[in-house]
Write a structure and sequence with these properties.
Strand 1 and strand 2 form a beta hairpin. A two-stranded antiparallel sheet has the order 1-2. The protein is built from 14 helices and two strands, in the order H-H-H-E-E-H-H-H-H-H-H-H-H-H-H-H. By secondary structure, the protein is mostly helical. About 70% of the residues lie in helices and about 0% in strands. The protein has a domain of about 230 residues: MetI-like (MetI-like fold).
Length: about 350
């Protein structure tokens, strides 16, 4: 198993490196870079003498910014002009980034000069608890709902739940979040919860904890409602199918109630096909936090990446893509490991 595990880890690392490399090279091909943002700020008409900046001075300033940020170097090892290929050796942006990344250094933000690892660590303190809480809550609710929906005959209440889950399954996350925002954080309707993470610095510790709990309700509920149908509907269908198999019919013939048959006998067999979906839930929620953190002004990794992409902050964008790719690939590896342990039939032969 160790050889197989090391092989899968190597594959995950290689795919994550390939994705990050593509994003790195593609980001350098954008027409407007971070130096353009700096020049735009410098040419603000509210500043004295800003209107006298000529095109030549702006070009000189732009080149100085590019040299300071390391963007004046070639992007890759080779470049091609109209007729020739040119080899630049190790004096290129990609080589410098890759060498630093292998040492654990993902660079510094172009906006404030802080280390990217520090910015990611600070933002993940908000994102990971939010995503993990949403995953745990969604899994618990999906299990309870699926056991209820798998019972026959179906009642009007079960049909209503099916309809609501089917509607949520085709509703995008931003629309769910906006609906909750307008419903529960609207002074003209139900102003029950705060709409954004803005608070006074003078409040006490417990008041701050209570405030953040209130702020997290709507983002948490948005994430749970979006992923809940993906877990509940397949699990309910699998439970219904397992309830018609011979062992379940035998258990019912021995006097067990339908709920006991579903929970004790059908559930272990029905959960196995959904392991990949469940382990893929956390990286999907981490990606979904981009939407809710922007809408609810939460200082998490999603908002950090959105702002970095808007400002062409390349090191933060590449590091964020690398983190999300590694999270998704490791979740798939975790699903394989769980299946390896639970079902010996799925274990690799070599």
């Amino acid at each position: 198993m160790l050889k197989w595990l090391l092989g899968r880890l190597g594959q995950a690392a290689g795919i994550a490196w390939l994705i990050a490399s593509i994003v790195f090279i593609s980001s350098r091909q954008l027409p407007d870079g971070p130096e353009q943002l700096v020049i735009s700020d410098a040419s603000d008409l509210a500043r004295p003498g800003a209107s006298t900046r000529t095109a030549a001075s702006q070009a000189v300033a732009r080149q100085a910014v590019r040299e300071r940020l390391g963007l004046a170097l070639p992007v890759f090892y080779v470049t091609r002009t109209a007729r020739h290929w040119y080899w630049h050796g190790t004096a290129n942006q990609y080589h410098h980034w890759l060498s630093a990344a292998l040492r654990g250094d993902l660079g510094r933000s172009y906006r404030d000069g802080q280390p990217v690892t520090t910015l990611l660590a600070q933002s993940l303190r908000y994102t990971l608890p939010l995503a993990a809480s949403a995953a745990a809550l969604a899994a618990g609710l999906a299990l309870a709902l699926a056991l209820h929906l798998a019972r026959t005959p179906a009642s009007w209440w079960q049909r209503l739940i099916f309809s609501l889950l089917s509607g949520l399954q085709i509703t995008p996350l931003f629309l769910v979040a906006l609906s909750l925002l307008l419903l529960f954080a609207n002074p003209e309707f139900l102003n029950l919860l705060p709409a954004a993470s803005q608070h006074s610095a003078a409040i006490g510790t417990w008041q701050l904890v209570g405030y953040w709990l209130g702020v997290s309700v709507l983002p948490l509920l948005s994430l749970v409602l979006v992923v809940l149908p993906e877990l509940t509907l397949p699990l309910a269908a699998l439970l219904r199918r397992e309830a018609t198999v011979g062992y379940a019919l035998t258990a019912r013939a021995k006097g067990l109630a339908t709920q006991q048959v579903l929970r004790r006998h059908a559930l272990p067999n029905a959960v196995l096909p959904l392991l990949t979906t469940f382990t893929d839930l956390l990286p999907s929620l981490v990606a979904g936090t981009v939407v809710v953190e922007v809408l609810f002004a939460l200082p998490g990794s999603g908002r950090l990446l959105a702002e970095a992409a808007a400002a062409h902050d390349y090191p933060v964008v590449v590091a964020g893509v690398l983190f999300v790719a590694m999270a998704r690939l490791l979740s798939l590896l975790l699903a394989d490991i769980v299946q390896y342990v639970i079902d010996p039939r799925l274990r690799p032969t070599t």
